[in-house]
Known about the structure:
The chain is α+β, with helices and mostly antiparallel strands. It has 13 helices and 17 strands. It has a 17-stranded mixed β-sheet, sandwiched between helices.
Amino acid sequence: MKFHWRDGNRLQLLENGEEFFPRVFEAIREAKKEVLLETFIFFEDKVGIELQKALIAAAQRGASVDITVDGYGSADLSAEFVAAMTDVGIRIQMFDPRKRLLGKRVNLFRRLHRKIVVVDGEVAFIGGINFSADHLSDFGPGAKQDYALQVEGPVVHDIHRFALTTVAPPNPSRRWWQRRIRPLADTYVGSSRGEARALLVTRDNDEHNTDIEQHYLQAIRDARSRLVIANAYFFPGYRVLREIRNAARRGVRVRLILQGQPDMPIAKFGARMLYNYLMNDGVEIHEYCRRPLHGKVALADYEWSTVGSSNLDPLSLSLNLEANLIIRDHMFNRLLHERLDHLLQNDCRRIPLERIMRGYWWRAPLAFLIFHFLRHFPALVGMFPAHKPKLELLDPNNRPAQSQSQSQSHQVSDAPLQREQQ
């Protein structure tokens, strides 16, 4: 699905669960017609329980409620928790559900990693925040630092249209007497709600497998003054690394905010393999040390910004289903820069080049091997026997559920399903 730039949007940056959850729950509580929700993680904790209550109340008022969760990230929802929602008519489907092997989740790759909520087709939320208590500061040292957007305006139509394709039934083999499925029209203009120009960009394993990466590359190439990237899992390929380094060489102030207290230590280890390559040309690297960084945001110069679910790592750029909003707006760019600069000044430590150079003689060969392994990691995964990720309606009574197998190639397209216009 191809989207276009939309003018006249109002965007509100939401930082962490303290700002995000109340806005989402309030919007769902006010829903009159429809709630569409996609998330990688939906936990059965205090955040998940509050979300469940809001969704049940919306369904009881007559709103149509569809939830899509990932089979890896949300594998532990209890039958009772699910039944409380399905009993009031909420449809819950799981992307790529798989049985555990020796108690371990095995569906690690090709995950539904998007975080999208659309209410009544009028307001949308998109970003990197999951529905779990570890996005709240009272969770403790493991609480995550993250960002999302509340969106109003014409671009909500695109987010809504995209979310509909996830919950739609598959296109069955059409008999000669059956009506042809019509593609979703793109004729909506919508009323202006603000000044921001925005574009929905998604990543799948079909026709849009590099769209998010391409927007990053173009923004980095065009940068002339400043570039700030805050990314939880940073291990991009050659092209992104080269363009970041080239930007620093031509005088752009490039600052990377990466994990200093990671929830996954291997993420920090992998990113540090790249430090010398980037810092030799003037890239500033700052590690966020207050708590785990989970954000996926960036800005270039004084207009371009992005907030979404996509990391700059092999999983997000080559395997996962992702969604980012690209923004061209001076006011939003300034606000995001202020938030990130506050992080840099108060909760980050800048990594000195001298520290990185110590022991480089023995780390250089290891960095070379790790970099090339991760660079080819998606292709290596593709060598394993391919399966067809599917959407399966959750059945709390463990009866055979209705499955929705998607049409995919050997590499797994994970392309959104189309829905017939009513």
